[in-house]
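Action item from last week, closing it out:
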Amino acid sequence: MTLGFTALELARIQFAFTVSFHIIFPAISIGLASFLAILEWRWLRSRNPIYQDLFKFWVKIFAVAFAMGGSGIVMSYQFGTNWSEFSRIAGSVTGPLLAYEVLTAFFLEAGFLGIMLFGWGRVGPKAHFFSTLMVAIGTCISMFWILSANSWMQTPQGFSIENGILVPQDWWAIVFNPSFLYRLAHMAIAAFLVSALLVAATAAWHLLKGRRDALVKTSFSMALWLMLILTPLQVLVGDLHGLNTLQHQPAKLAAMEGHWNTNHEKGMPLYLFGIPDMQAEETKYVLAIPNLGSVILTHSLDGTVTGLKEFALEDRPNSTIVFWSFRIMVGLGVLMLILALWGLWLRKRQRLYEHRRFQRFALWMGPSGFIALLAGWFTTEVGRQPWVVYGVLRTEDALSPVSAEQVGLSLMIFVLVYFVVFGMGIYYMFRLMHKGPELIHSAPSSASDAELTQASRRPLSSVTEQIDPPTEHPKQEQEP
């Protein structure tokens, strides 16, 4: 059952599995909520029913993703089951931050979600837009508190240690820790890109199938405009985030770059390819650009960057993992930028909706936002090891007194349940996107008051479409 893994290794795998599965849905919710607010704002300004019909289509995808976001509850339980020592030692800091997320974001979203999903025709247009805006703001507030807690674990400050317990002393310093604003901006743009790529891929699918109506064209156009704005901005934020990591987590940065020896006499190269070997303490089979690493990280040709050998063996992150997770994230970011610029070029040549090769590229890039997001989180979390609170609390000291068999059994249950339950949710979303938006001429909602209340509790109840065609049974001939 344990396959030779220790309880610590299995607990880390379990948390990595649940958080990786979970982050997909909040990313969609954050991005789509803001996209829906833009659509409704455009409708209010122009009264063009295209924007309203697009809103009514994408709000169904949002409702499914929002409901699936409940998978995050499982992670809270793991703080007590697998990581009780972390909760005991650091809970006085992280607990309130997570509670603030519930008190602010959750109640704001729940209060306006029913109106957003079922309010068309029942409240005024401005009141409905206000509800949509509140839900979008609520998703961003939720991201604010979650990223604050995670960033504090990466760059902790504002606390003291009393009898082995981390005691908060300065909440402003805790919330706005040194890496927080960089991580918040990086994650927000990533979530927006996830949704932009999802919208573009859905529209590209229907363009490839021959649809040329205004709904599909508008979706495609808006998503590409968003990518054109967001992708260069993400490059800038990512660069600033990297400089912050160099300052506060130099071991992580060295592992990301596969940089073992501190470069005192010459510039640090940038490794495009390589295989870091943790045992041999070197990066093998490298393909490098001389001095470019120093240029990017220190903005000088011969800037010094601390190598991984400067840190004790027990304090080094696994360079083999973060080296490649970081390059997957950056590589996909480059492809996103190419997609956005290619789209701009085709738009100017008035071939955006007819260039099938570009549309195939946009379709295949649909999952890239999720992959880049996961690769970024792997870089962040694996790069923090062996610390759960960087430089303060080691991961091995945060583990509960559990056996490998106990953690292994719960991990197997999680994997089974997640793939069945959330796999069905993902399948349902794909079927909705496969069906595509429909021109419904802004028909008013026929939802009852009970449905409005129910929507805030069960968002999936707002999705009532039949995504599979009904089965037709042959008529039986009657006997004479």
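Closing note: Strands lie at 159-162, 165-168, 270-277, 282-289, 387-389, 393-394.
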